[in-house]
Amino acid sequence: MIAWLLPENVEDVLPPRAWRMEDMRRALLDLFRGHGYQLVIPPLMEYVDSLLTGVGADLDLKTFKLVDQLSGRLMGVRADITPQVARIDAHLLATNAVNRLCYAGSVLHTQSAGFHRSREPIQIGAELYGEAGTEADLEILTLMLQGLAVCGVKTPQLDIGHVGVYRALAQEAGFSSEIEHQLFGALQAKDSSAVSVLTAGMQASLRDAFAALPQLYGDRSMLAEARMRLPQLASVQTALDTLETIDRSLRDVEVAYDLTELRGYGYHSGVVFAAYTGGRSHAIAQGGRYDEVGRVFGRARPATGFSMDLRELTIASSDTQ
Question: Which pTM does this prediction carry?
Answer without folding.
Answer: 0.93
